[in-house]
Each structure stands twice: as C-alpha cells, then as structure tokens.
Amino acid sequence: MSHAIRKLGGMLLTLIVASFIIFAAMFAAPGDPVTFLIGNPENMTPERIASVRAQYHLDEPMLAQYWHWASGALTGDFGRSFQYHQPVSQILAARIPVTLALVGYAAVLLAVFGIGLGVLAAVRRGRPTDTVIVGGTTLAASIPSFVLGIALVALFAVQLGWFPVAGAGSGGLDRLYALTLPAFTLAITALAIVSRVTRQSMIEQFSSEHVEAARATGLAERFVVRDHVLRGSWGPIITMVALVIASMIAGTVAVETVFGISGVGSLLVDAINTHDFPVVQAVLLFMVVAYMVVTTAVDLLLPMLDPRINRRAVSA
C-alpha cells in the first residue's frame, strides 16, 4: 500500500511539473496570442486588444495565467480554441477515441509479433533464424515512421488498392480495416525493442537453476520454454511493452499526418501550425497523462504478475 501511495504521489508531482513546463513553453512561444484571437488587422484597436487580453487573462502575470489554466484543466475546461472557436475539451473528446483505437490496434500487433519473434529468436538462438529476426527487426526500426507510412500507402493503398489511402473509417470493422496500415506503421517501428528484450530476457532464463531442474526431470523442451523460461521472463517483457505503448501516443503525430487520420496527433500538428495555443497545451498534457497512467499502472500491477519483484522491493 505504501508503495502505491508513493507512486501516486510521484505521479501527481510529475503531472504538476509537466503541466507548468507545458504552459511556460507556450507562454514563451513567439507571437502574441491576441493577434490570432482578433484575426482581422482592421479590428486591432487599443480597446479591442485590451478587451481580448482581459477576457483571456493575458493581461495578468504568467503564474496567474497558469493558475487559471491549471484550475480549469482539473475540471476538464482547457479554454476555447483560437482556430475552431469551440471548447478545447469538445475537440479533444472527438479526436481521442480515434487515437486510442489506433494505439490499441498497434499495441496488439506489437505484443503478438514482438513477443512472438523474440520467443522464436531465443529458442533458435545462435542459428540463422535468430540472425534474420534480429537483423530484420533492427532494419525495420531504423526506418522513420513517416517514410514507412508513405511506402505502405504507395504499395498497399495506391498500387494494390487493398486499403484506403486516408481516413479512420466510420466505426466497427470498417475502422479496424482502415486503421490496419497506420497500426502496422506504428507497431513496426517499435518491434525491434520488444523482440530484443524478449529474446534477451529468455536467454538469461535458459541458464537459470529452475530451468535446469525442469530439464533434469525429463520435461519436454516446449513445456520448459512455456512454463519456466517464458514465465520467468514476463517482468522485463511486460515493462518494455508498456513503455513502448505509452510512447506510441506521441508516435501518432507522424502516423496520423501521413494517413490523414483525424486524431490527437494530427490535431497537435494543426494547432502548432495555426498557433492554437490552448489546443497545443491540452494535447501535450493529454500525452503526458496517458504516458504516466500506463507506466504507473504497470508498475503497480507488475508485482502481482511476478512476486519476485515485490520481494526485491521489500528487501531493498
């Protein structure tokens, strides 16, 4: 219980610091928000400028502005978009489901293929299969996601016509179908990390005492791998998969832009290009919160999956 309280307290402190950094970065960004709020230069009268500054608290010190923004964010109020003239929370609510569907799809692909290839490489360690898997996944990870996405669109969408060129589908199976290429693009770039951690963790388990004892009992090798080697390797594997999935939220920026998906990532790009500061702040805060929630949840649940972690924490 004390470990959970410490983790949640650290999460809260990190969130406060991260939110202040995000707000301060936007505060220090070049350009006057009043210019984007008023728009038409003919309306840039001293009275209009003063009115807009008072309305958006731009005439107050930075700490006061941060307090208005942070206190509003706690209740889900991130202000109004400069570009869309709508509450930022409504814009995010419309975009988040698409991004979460994309990340969830990519996470499934990553876990299945990443762990599967890592297991195969560990079982075939030192053989050509191992070399091919390590080399192939490393090569895939070295390709930037936007380059890989463009290549997949050109081949499978334009040339073969198997998938739509852009969009996220209308929902259900259509959304799953439309997000296939983007999800593969998002997953492939992280495949090498998960497969390599899986391989290394399993190789270390192969030489452990409990695995040798299982072999000595005459247990078939496939059961040794499944019940002893892989089971003892889950801690590092799950931790790495969680870290990669958490970082995928930020990775959607390039993927959603390439595939024309109206998600949080493409919203961030549009907001930066149009100097829509409230939207930029809200999206960045969402990405930070999503990363922290995933990593903290795994950190709290991991001792349940691997009791050895809890024992090491207590002994330390």
From TrEMBL:
It is a multi-pass membrane protein. Residues 96-298 form the ABC transmembrane type-1 domain. It comes from the Bacteria. It is found in: Cell membrane. The keyword Manganese does not apply. The keyword Translocase does not apply. Keywords: Cell membrane, Membrane, Transmembrane, Transmembrane helix, Transport. The chain crosses the membrane at residues 102-123, 132-156, 176-194, 237-259, 279-302. GO terms for biological process: transmembrane transport. Its main location: membrane. PROSITE patterns: ABC_TM1. One of its GO terms (cellular component) is plasma membrane. Belongs to the binding-protein-dependent transport system permease family. PANTHER family: DIPEPTIDE TRANSPORT SYSTEM PERMEASE PROTEIN DPPB-RELATED (PTHR43163:SF6). This is ABC transporter permease. The lineage of its organism: Bacteria, Bacillati, Actinomycetota, Actinomycetes, Micrococcales.
